[in-house]
Write the structure tokens for this entry.
Amino acid sequence: MRALSAFALASLVALSGCSLFSSSKAPKPAPLEELKAATIAPQVLWNQRIDNTSFAQAITARDGKFFVAAGDGVVQALQATTGQTVWRADVGAKLSAGVGSDGRFAAVVTRGNELVVIDAGKVLWRKTLPTPVIASPLVAGERVFVLTVDRQVQAFDALDGRKIFDMRRPGEPLTLAKAGVLGVFMDTLIVGQGPRMTGVDPLRGTVRWESSVANPRGTNEVERLADLVAPLVRNGEVLCARAFQSAVGCVSAERGATIWSRIVGGTNGVGGDAQYIYGADGSDRLSAWRIATGDTAWTAEQFTNRKLGVPLAVGNSVLVGDFEGYVHFVERETGKTLARLPTDGSPIVTAPVLLDGIALVATEKGGLYAIKP
């Protein structure tokens, strides 16, 4: 009962920002800049419409394909260059978590807490999980890993659904109703548990190392809520993430030690490349931090209160979506706006994914837009 109560309360915390612009006292979003001459010319290669995608989910890109899941339970593999459907599967239930894939197997979780694994468009097996899941499953090494809302980690054999391990840690008093960190570095599973990044043996479910990204402060459990938020950014052996409303930081996966942590508000995940980590703060000021030191390289204030999503580094620019469905492109070295593209007018709700120079974004209304920067 405690876990469910914590989840319900965290859901309110996560959803409280949804009414931000409905209040007359809320700060007004910055108006769109006048772009006299765009210095780059991004274009939409293709777009599709699927069912509502506003549930916590992710798009996965592997082997020339984007893997997407709609809220109604339809999972698809789409050719990255054309948007043509490679395969399509209906799991028969609404989803609570989006799709993870290794290129062959795809995995989703239903609102009934069923983990469903698909092989080439056919449902292979189903397993009922003990508690709800929001983070997309991770598929790697013919294993499927899931992170539940109470931060349990379970691993299953991708071929037959056999449980490999169930890793339970002492629970946090409150957990966040946003997708948490679940990734991989070489032969180590990377898991976000509260404000800590944890390296886990993927065969045994034992902890190899853990390192804090944030040191939460506050007078109550809500203020101290600092779960790591997806996506995980990897550059070599450096792993970076945002701790909800608390900090942005990077960890050495080889040493299992914190490299740097910077106190900064904000609720959405971060993006990055070989030089910088990019993210928005609580007022939607977009910043770049040097990945080696954590020093601020620049801060851009032209998007304040526009409810920015997760940034994505693409060549010499960074793209980021907002609450009106615009995709903005800024210069990676300065934060200066280069161009923008409209979508369908609804918020960009997923972290954009890059594959072979094509970025795919998804909107709350179910629009998929493949963009060539």
